[in-house]
Amino acid sequence: MNIMIPAWVDGTLQPVEKLEAHKLGLKHKAISVFLFHNNKILLQRRALGKYHTPGLWANTCCTHPYWNETDSDCANRRVFEELHLTGLELKNRGKIEYRADVGQGLIEHEIVEIFTATCSAAPKVTPNPEEVMEIKWLDQIELANKVETNPDEFTPWLRIYMSKHFEQISGTITA
């Protein structure tokens, strides 16, 4: 199945096959979601069948919008597809751009719309095993310490988010 995502080719946003965008290191659109509860963040460990960064810990969920899909629709779709969560009040925290080698000759060069949600009660999460092998809630400070001491357990983008953008993501500053 060819998934077409919005990527910039020669300065123009156009539909590009997802794997091709990563092989060429094209700048492309993405979303990342962070779910908070009691000062903890819901993390997911990526399924071993993922074509890049399998088995690494990442934020609650992330993906690429389909061509002509809004960022908000994409975020809600992916939270459901990966974790079977619905009804979250996602708040847009702005854009982050990063470029990272994700292994196997693939590059993530993303313009990411960051979304967050805060839950008063921990929601029932049912991970899709094709996408997520494990979940856990981790205190924000503990997460920052773990990313610093054991970076190879985390995706490149989560390491970048934690080291350079966490105030924007957590809402202590705006984009």
Task: Show the helix and strand layout.
Layout: E1 4-9, E2 12-17, H1 18-24, E3 27-37, E4 40-46, E5 57-58, E6 61-63, H2 71-83, E7 91-103, E8 106-118, E9 132-139, H3 140-149, H4 156-164, H5 166-170
Parallel strand pairs: 3-8
Antiparallel strand pairs: 1-2, 3-4, 3-6, 4-5, 4-9, 7-8
Helix pairs in contact: 3-4
Compose a concise summary of this entry:
With 175 residues, the chain is an alpha+beta fold. 25% of the residues lie in helices and 39% in strands.
What structural keywords apply?
single chain, 175 residues, alpha+beta, Nucleoside Triphosphate Pyrophosphohydrolase, 7-stranded mixed sheet, two-stranded antiparallel ribbon, 5 helices, 9 strands, globular
Structural account:
The chain is an alpha+beta fold and 175 residues long. The chain has a single domain (4-170), classed as Nucleoside Triphosphate Pyrophosphohydrolase (Alpha-Beta Complex), CATH 3.90.79.10. It has helices spanning 18-24, 71-83, 140-149, 156-164, 166-170, and strands spanning 4-9, 12-17, 27-37, 40-46, 57-58, 61-63, 91-103, 106-118, 132-139. Strands 3, 4, 5, 6, 7, 8 and 9 form a seven-stranded mixed sheet that branches. Helix 3 packs across helix 4. The longest helix has 13 residues, at 71-83. It starts with a strand and ends in a 5-residue tail after the last helix. The model has no long low-confidence stretch (mean pLDDT 93).
